[in-house]
Design brief:
Number of strands of chain B: 14
Number of helices of chain B: 6
Largest interface: A-B, 26 and 27 residues
Structural class of chain B: alpha/beta
Oligomer: heterodimer
Number of helices of chain A: 16
Radius of gyration of chain A: 18 Å
Largest sheet of chain B: 7 strands, mixed
Distance between the termini of chain A: 40 Å
Strand order of the largest sheet of chain B: 6-5-4-3-2-1-14
Helix content of chain A: 55-70%
Strand content of chain A: under 5%
Shape of chain A: globular
Order of helices and strands of chain B: EEEHEHEHEEEEEHEHEHEE
Distance between the termini of chain B: 6 Å
Radius of gyration of chain B: 19 Å
Number of strands of chain A: 0
Order of helices and strands of chain A: HHHHHHHHHHHHHHHH
């Protein structure tokens, strides 16, 4: 795993600070907040589907300043602690930065990334409910899935030229994207995502999940479910350019899944609704 | 420890003949620790009358704890006369605002802008210090310990518990009892309820067994449904809280600004008649300007 310089770490951190949110959530937040009687649950429903806004809220509430005894891992928890109006105004302040452009210099499809993150978030929760019931908190499952690939958006924003070369290398040579990132950038999205999550004092379990989601070791039931959710998402066509199984590199499944991804996919049943909801949410204009 | 109410009105100053007895000034409570140290809870317009009284005991060393930054809890601050007199010390404590990223110094800075007030902070002669508190942080002020608790309001609001030689009080600032933002049929209903219950338990713990519980009691239970989400409490909820945490005395404050003295007494009598049989040892009072309590 490649280390990165202190200076690059700072640059990546500030890239997130100024990063706008996704088009559909910005549009919905602006709509909802025009109505003084907007229902809090509708607002929470939008915020918790946007990885950028979610990260920024969790970053504030988990900061040393608030010194909360327990780490906060969900927007519902944030609503209880900060209050709905403060949450609303935070979301609004993030929404006025602008919107993440659909086309970026890296050629990274952010809409596909958003659908992939939402699908994975729901998959981790569904997989944990079946294979790790009582061992992984459903809230942690959702957030781990939503944020696991966050490093990719940071690369796209902060070092588009290098990330573009990594995306091309992964596609052309049929290697997993994280390996291509290592070759081109010297580190990968798991390392960068985890580094930022650690810097923002996110819970250690979440940091570990992000760091380890491409293996080789899976320390917790949650991390195991995330790994498998990532593979199922790839099968469904929503791996956010991860190319995880490229070149026969699909990692061995943890024991609880009996080594059989097909069986997991079958057990999950119809995932169409999950995908349809994610697609509906991520569509930029009017969708 | 003793305390005195200098402002008991919510939202906006409400002077006039109909509020003359309870008072029309907004929130300000003077607390004295056993050794006489001055602690002030909130800087609503009530702080101006307190400031006049303090001129008799110069130099003043004041420790002002701001529950939250809404106008009615800070708009007396620029008129806190000891700020203008050399030799005085004023330390302001309060929360950091997550939306602006500013600390408690913001509550003075916004008010002392050229367009809104003629004096700049640099021209104030007292030594002014600011301390932004973390959630649950305790600070020692002479023989008293003040601890913050994050409550529920449309802006970050700290309730403060003050302990001094075995006596204690808790002031909520503005606070609305938690409610579930989901409907019972929603997937998230149970999860949210569990989060609320956990948060409520931690607040109850912070209030547990206080000698005096001073609570935002803006509304009646009949008025409350139309004001849900505004961040204020109501009589029945305040009494429930006091009973649950085993407070000895409950002081209802932050009176609704349009409520006259007569209406306030009438509303209070109705509530007390309903709850009297279950109060046990709990004493319940309506706060009024000038009400002084020794614990």
């Amino acid at each position: 795993m490649g280390q990165i310089s202190v200076e690059l770490g700072k640059r990546l951190n500030s890239a997130v600070e100024s990063m706008p949110a996704f088009p559909k959530s910005v549009q919905r937040i602006l709509e909802l907040t025009r109505d003084i009687n907007c229902r809090p649950k509708d607002l929470v429903g939008v915020i918790e589907k946007d990885p950028v806004i979610t990260i920024k809220v969790l970053k504030i509430i988990n900061s040393a300043y608030y010194g909360l005894p327990n780490k906060i891992t969900s927007i519902n928890q944030s609503a209880v602690y900060l209050g709905v109006n403060t949450l609303k105004n935070l979301a609004l302040s993030f929404s006025t930065i602008g919107i993440l452009p659909k086309k970026n210099d890296a050629g990274f499809d952010i809409q596909h990334y958003l659908i992939s993150s939402l699908v994975t978030a729901n998959l981790v929760r569904a997989i944990a409910a079946r294979y790790a019931a009582g061992e992984a908190d459903p809230t942690d499952c959702y957030i781990a899935g939503l944020l696991h690939d966050f490093g990719k958006v940071v690369f796209a924003q902060c070092m588009p030229e290098e990330f573009n070369r990594a995306l091309k290398l992964s596609a052309n040579d049929n290697v997993p994207l994280h390996n291509a990132e290592q070759t081109i950038i010297g580190t990968d999205h798991t390392f960068v995502g985890a580094m930022l999550a650690k810097r923002w004092q996110f819970p250690a379990s979440l940091v570990d999940c992000i760091a380890g989601h491409h293996g080789p070791k899976y320390a917790t039931p949650l991390a195991e479910c995330l790994l498998v959710a990532d593979l199922v998402a790839e099968r469904l066509g929503y791996d956010s350019n991860g190319n995880v199984s490229a070149g026969g590199e699909e990692p061995a499944l943890p024991r609880r899944f009996a080594g059989d991804l097909d069986a997991v996919v079958t057990a999950l049943g119809d995932t169409g609704k999950m995908v349809a909801e994610a697609k509906m949410f991520s569509q930029g204009e009017g969708g | 420890m003793k305390f005195r109410f200098w402002g008991v009105r919510g939202s906006i100053p409400s002077p006039g003949p109909h509020t003359a007895r309870f008072g029309g000034n907004t929130t300000c409570i003077e607390v004295r620790s056993d050794n006489g140290t001055l602690i002030i809870l909130d800087g609503g317009t009530g702080i101006f009358a307190l400031a006049q009284a303090l001129l008799r005991e110069l130099p003043v060393s004041a420790n002002i704890f701001i529950t939250h930054s809404h106008w009615d809890h800070i708009h007396g601050l620029p008129f806190f006369i000891p700020l203008f007199i050399p030799g005085n010390k004023v330390r302001l404590y309060g929360a950091m605002d997550p939306v602006t990223g500013s600390g408690v110094e913001q509550v003075m800075a916004v008010q002392l802008q050229y367009s809104y007030f003629p004096v700049r902070e640099a021209e104030m002669k007292a030594a002014i210090e600011y301390t932004s508190l973390a959630i649950g942080q305790s600070v020692e002020v002479a023989d008293a310990t003040i601890t913050s608790t994050l409550l529920n309001h449309p802006v970050i609001d700290f309730g403060y518990r003050i302990d001094c030689n075995g006596k204690s009080l808790f002031f909520t600032g503005d606070h609305e009892p938690y409610y579930n933002i989901y409907d019972p049929e929603d997937d998230d209903f149970c999860e949210y309820q569990a989060l609320i219950d956990e948060k409520q338990a931690s607040i109850d713990q912070a209030m547990r067994g206080v000698d005096a519980l001073i609570v935002d009691t803006s509304y009646t239970r009949e008025e409350y449904p139309a004001k849900k989400g505004w961040g204020h409490g109501y009589f029945d909820a305040s009494i429930e809280t006091a009973l649950r945490v085993g407070a000895k005395r409950l002081y209802c404050t932050h009176h609704e600004p349009t409520r006259s003295d007569a209406e306030l007494e009438s509303v209070f009598a109705e509530v007390m008649a309903r709850h009297a049989p279950r109060l046990g040892g709990l004493q319940v009072f309506l706060a009024h300007e000038g009400l002084a309590v020794e614990l």
